[in-house]
Amino acid sequence: MKNKRKYFVCLGIVAVCVIGGLILFNSLKSKEEKYRAEQDRVAKYLVNHIELVDDYPIEKIEFIEFKKDNMTGFWWITTTINNKYTISLSERNFGEDVQVSHYSPAEFKIREKSVPNTNDNADNLEIIYKED
User: Which residue ranges does UniProt annotate as crossing the membrane (predicted)?
Assistant: First the structure.
């Protein structure tokens, strides 16, 4: 009788661990999907609001930093464009307005209004995501 009871207790513990692991894995996957979707949104913002001073098209965006500052509550985003230019942005929460925080006016022109990208390279834009 005691062996049967130990068996069921162990089986219950294993079941709880497996279910907990599955829930944790799904929440992490969901978090990664949110990060990736937000990075896609920021990349679209850059293509529609930023113009390179040398008039080259934006062909590649690499996310160098993508993290939340717990003191201020803002997300800080740093990207490298075309392996050459660095620009930093911030936003309060995912999906809210993106603000340009730091850039060199010698490298970028900021458009106040979104200009839909008519560049043929927009479909070929390479995005290198920052993993959490």
Answer: 7-25
Sign of CA dihedral 79, 36, 122, 47: negative
What is the model's pLDDT at position 71?
A: 93
Q: What are phi and psi of 56, to 5 degrees?
A: -75, 150
| DSSP SS3 for 120 | helix
User: What are the pLDDT digits (tens) for 111-129?
Assistant: 877 666 555 455 689 999 9
Give residue 71's domain range: 2-128
**How many domains is the chain partitioned into structurally?**
1
Q: If DSSP codes are grouped into helix, strand and coil, which group holds residue 71?
A: coil
DSSP secondary structure, 12-49, as one string: HHHHHHHHHHHHHHHHHHHHHHHHHHHHHHHHHHHHHH
Residue pointed to by tokens 């089986």: 11
